[in-house]
Amino acid sequence: MTHPIDPVVVRAHADVLELFRTDTAVDPAGLAAVCRAARDRLAALPDLDPDNPRSWTSYELITTDVQTLLACLREVNVPSSESQDFRSLLIRVLRYLYAADGTKTGARLAEIIYSEWEARMGESHMDTLQAAERLAACLHAERDAKRAQPVFEKIFRLRSGKFGDDHPDTLLAACNIGACLGQLEEYSAAFHLYRDTVRRCERRLGRDHRTTMLATFNLAACLRKLGEHERALTLYQDVRRWYGRVSGENSLETLDAEVGIAKTLHELGEYERARAINADLLTRFASLAGKAHSRTAQARSRLVENLRALGRNGEADEVEGISHPDF
Fold it and tell me: N or C: where does the chain have the smaller number of CB atoms within 10 Å of the terminal CB?
């Protein structure tokens, strides 16, 4: 489903285009002034939620403007690290690219931003670390855990040194390291890290905290890979209830928790229960994130797998779009 672009974003886009049409953009000094004005105009945009698919069409337009502007800023040596509002916008753009399957672009953009902010503000600056986190997240999403893991480990080290091991940002970094271990199939190491992180989160942040839920979700995934399906299912169900209550029944987080439940049920041989969940998820992901989104495609693949396990191959072919000619 395509959602309308926020009118505030449309106006900002038009304003930025108009700025670059002015005669002052011809000479370097004039271009620098235009770049600053465009940067400040975009920085004034409202804080749209980049994790909400309803904002993605707006962020698609914002990202186009940001990419063009960053190239111009580098050309005239105007920093993208000014101001706080512009840095926050860039982080949101990177979050959008991660959530909306734009991780190749996200990794390239994050690398540029992280490199500049590290040079201008230092490696320990909170926003520099957020840019590094976005870079590593996009690399991880691109199945490049070998490059992502050292970045996450650096973030953990710097946050731990600055805030301590039990700070929420440090605990989030630990979760991200565990995700890399899981992708590298180091499940035992990931399990011990997640078990410790969940305990720390519950002690420091409480059970009812987003980072605690992320760590619990990842622990469930790790347990499933280790064959502890009943324990994994219980945790997935707990996480699903929490996200449903806090983020809403149709948030991506809630649906992702349902994905974990469906995967676990299939591996337990509960093919019909898994099929029912995946059939529902296919419709909901398509409606929320779009038919072309990876989550939608994965839901379709899981549904096909469920149907074939049930011996319902004709239905599986139909879901896959396989046609059988009449003879």
Answer: C
* Closest CA relative to residue 278, chosen from 307, 310, 235: 307
Burial 134-173 (b: 16+ CB within 10 A, else e): bbbbbbbbeebbeebbebbbebbebbbeeeeeebbbbbbb
pTM of the model: 0.91
Over residues 60-118, the pLDDT tens digits come to 999 999 999 999 999 889 999 999 999 999 999 999 999 999 999 999 999 999 999 99
Q: Are 47 and 91 in contact (CB under 8 A)?
A: no
Work out the burial of residue 21: count CB atoms within 10 Å of its CB; fewer than 13 is exposed, 13-18 middle, 19 or more buried: exposed
Helical axes 145-163 vs 168-183, angle rounded to 10°:
160
Helix (H) or strand (E) holding 224: helix 210-225
Encoding tokens for residue 122?
Answer: 């230092």
What lies within 8 Å, CB to CB, of 314 at 6+ separation is none
Extract the tokens encoding 53: 């698919």
For residue 307, give the nearest of 325, 292, 322 by alpha carbon.
322
DSSP per position, 122-169: -TTSHHHHHHHHHHHHHHHHTT-HHHHHHHHHHHHHHHHHHH-TTSHH
210-261 per-position pLDDT tens digit: 999 999 999 999 999 999 999 999 999 999 999 999 999 999 999 999 999 9
Q: Give the integer Cα–Cα distance in Å for 173 and 179.
A: 10
Distance CA 83, CA 161 (A): 26
> 41: which 2 tokens?
């105009």
